[in-house]
Each structure stands twice: as structure tokens, then as C-alpha cells.
Amino acid sequence: MNKFIRPQTFIDGKYYTAAQSFDLINPATGDVITAVPNLSIAECEQAIQGAHNAGLSWRQRSTYARCELVQKWHLLIQENTEALAELMTLESGKPLADSRAEISYGNSFVSWFAEEGKRAYGQTIPSANPNLRLMTIQQAVGLVAAITPWNFPLAMITRKVAPALVAGCTVILKPASQTPLTAIALAQLAFEAGIPAHVFNVITSTESAAVGELLAKHDLIRKISFTGSTGVGKTLMEQAASTIKKVSMELGGNAPFIVFEDADIDAAVKGAMAGKFRNSGQTCVSINRFYVHETVYSAFAEKLTAAVKALKVGNGLEEGVQIGPLINQKGLKKVRAHVEDALSKGAVLQTGGTSLHGLFFTPTVLTEVSSEAIIASEETFGPVCALFKFATEEEVIALANHTDFGLAAYFFTQDVARSYRVAEALEAGMIGINTGLLSNAAAPFGGVKQSGIGREGSLLGLQEYMEVKYICQGL
């Protein structure tokens, strides 16, 4: 039995059991992993009050002291890699190799912010009046509410909580009801690292809308950070406006992947596999639309299809599995619908396209996809590659930008001038050139248009949890 599996959440530095609970299901097997507390609104209120009360003493600790504790948290996460990886695979279904990679990636944010927290500098501003001294300092925004999704149960938490903690904020975390165990484990490890009780608390509930409204509207909460769908993000922003909260939103995507005629086709296929099939295509930066130049379309489609056919599907705990299940029936139904719609509008199935047992869906390649297909405009969030042809650079930029979303975009070319031109023309917050992997703790992560507001990672990610205070001193 995994040491982190227990029927409690973690609040005020200890495990907490509620009167009500809900079952947590392994999406690969359908088995119940454990029951998790289903907190009432009143219990969530208590946790918020406790976190608020702890805020003053946590803020008053020196930045270096806070950063030292967060660095200890980093080491404990690292020491527990195998147990955490197994936990993530059990509750999310992702292959064990992906879970291990996520721990390394997610923990890099903890290490980064444990150092970057020491560099939250203010400014000394020249004054036109010799009798005045002008300066700014940065201070913690206050109590933070973080709401995280199921597809990255660890990384979506660490890149919110780590900067909040080093900034001097206390945190109420609401993880997705499908994957709360990793969140609870992280809070336990933070407490073991010496981060005080009430500073990092996890509230678990199936009443996501009601809890989200509570967090967004609560007057003690000064900042809300959300990763999830654009629809929910809009609702939370509207609710947060009632108390003029600081908000950051990492929302939906519809990432284009462009293969120009001069691209290295083998490198492009490798990049496509990396950017599409992590977590069975259930990532916000996952490639959704493949635009391939008409002169290399057949070659790219052939090599991509061969690579996709070689993927091993199964339970993520089994050796060599690369594609796990989809998270639930709703996700499976959407993937099926997108494939069926594309086929009905003339797409050609090269491989996959079928449901297996349970929540598994075969990795799929579709060619000759119509621009009228649903998949051209909606995020699939599954293991489906939809290939479209294009003829000119101007045409493909227009196609890539023809969406309400703008999180990530990718393209492959060996033309240096084109690299600059296209990167600047694409409407996305993050651009991958000749790579399918772009996220890094030192770089800002976030989108434009309806893909969100604010940034995570980098110095900008720390500033999301701080307010600038201007000080004017007369002599």
C-alpha cells in the first residue's frame, strides 16, 4: 500500500476527516483507491479562517527563512519520488514514466522559487525634490486560493504554491476531485519540511462550483490562481470581481503545430510525439491542429503514423506503457465525437480511432481533415492527431491564429528569418520552435486571448503573489 493513500485531507498541519466522503477511482481499472473527505462549506470556511490567522506570523518570517523551508520541501519531494509517482499514476492513469517526469518538472519550480524568492527586489527612485526619498518594496499579497486540475496533479500545484510560500502568502488549495491524493501528500511533505500549520491547507470536495464561488468571493482571500477550462475561469473572474481580487488564470488551449516545407521531418515527428501524447493528449499545451505544408504532407503523415502505431497502451503501472486511459467517460465521449465528426466530413483514418476497454482510446492519426470539422476549432484533449494541409506562410499563420485561444504554438523550420517572423506573428503566449516541449521553471508560462491572464514560473510567477508598495519619505 502506498504510504500516501489515506482517507483524510491535510488542514492545519494534521490529517482531517469529514462527516462525508467520496470515492476516488483509478481510471485504468475502475477500482476504488480510497475515500476522500467531502468537506462542507462550513469546514472550508474554517480552513480559510485558520490560514488567514496564520498569515501574519508567516509573512513576518524573513524571506531567507521561508526560502530555506521551501528548499527543504523540494528535497522531501525528491526523496519521495517513487511513492508520489505511483500515487499519481493510480489516481490520474498516466504512465509511471510520465509521473516520474512530472515530479522532476514540478519540483523544479519548488527549487527555482526557493532561490528566486530572495530576489523580490524593490526600487530606489530618483526624486525631483531633494527633500523627498522615493522607493518601492514588494510584499505578500495575502491569503491565496489555488484551484488545480487533474491532468498534472503535482506540477500545477508546485508552480502556484512554491512562489506563494516564498512570497509570504498562506495557501488554501482546492485540487481536482479526481486527483486529490497528490495534493494531500504535498501538503504533508511541506509540513514535514517545517512549514507551519495552517500555512498550506488542502480542501477536498466534489462541490467544485460552490467551493470555487466561496474562494472567489471570500473577503479574506486576496488572490485566486486557477488552472482549468476557460468557461470556469470566466465564472471565477466574475465572482472575484466582487472583492477586487488579484487573479491569474491558465485556461484552455488549441495549440497549432506547423511543419514548413524546409523542416527536418524526422525532428518534426519527434517533436509532434512529445507535444501530443504526454498524458494521452490531456494537457493544456497539447498539440490540437497539425498544419503541414502540402509538399511534405505525405512524408510527415507516413512517419507520424508509424510512430503512433508503435505506442503501447495500457495501465500506467505496467512496464513500457506510454498511453494510459482518459480521465473519465466525459473525456472519452468527447474524443470519440471529434473523431467521428472528422470522419463524417471526409477525414481519412490512418491508425487508431477506436475505443478499447474502459476509458482507453487508441492513439489516432487523421489525414485530409476538413476545416469544418469540430477538431479544427475545439480542443480535443485526447490522443488524436488531426492533419491539415497548407500552401503558404501567410495562410498557415492565419489558420493558426483563427481561434479564441492562444496558449502554446509550435512550428518546425530551418529558416532563421522565418523563425523570427512566424514566432512574432503567432498569437500565443508560448512558442516552441523545432521542439515539442517548451515549459521551464525559469520561463514564464501562460497564454493570451481566452487562454488566460498572468504568468507562472520565472520572476513574473513570483510577482503574481506580491503587491508593490510605494514609500515616500520626507527629510
Automatic annotation (TrEMBL):
GO molecular function term, any single one: succinate-semialdehyde dehydrogenase (NAD+) activity
Pfam families: Aldedh
Keyword flag Oxidoreductase: yes
PROSITE patterns found in the cross-reference section: ALDEHYDE_DEHYDR_GLU
Keyword set includes Oxidoreductase: yes
Active-site positions on this chain: 250
Record key words, sorted: Oxidoreductase
Signal sequence bounds: none
Origin superkingdom: Bacteria
A GO biological-process term: gamma-aminobutyric acid catabolic process
Family (UniProt): Belongs to the aldehyde dehydrogenase family.
Protein name, UniProt field: NAD-dependent succinate-semialdehyde dehydrogenase
Originating organism: Rhinopithecimicrobium faecis
Lineage: Bacteria, Pseudomonadati, Bacteroidota, Sphingobacteriia, Sphingobacteriales
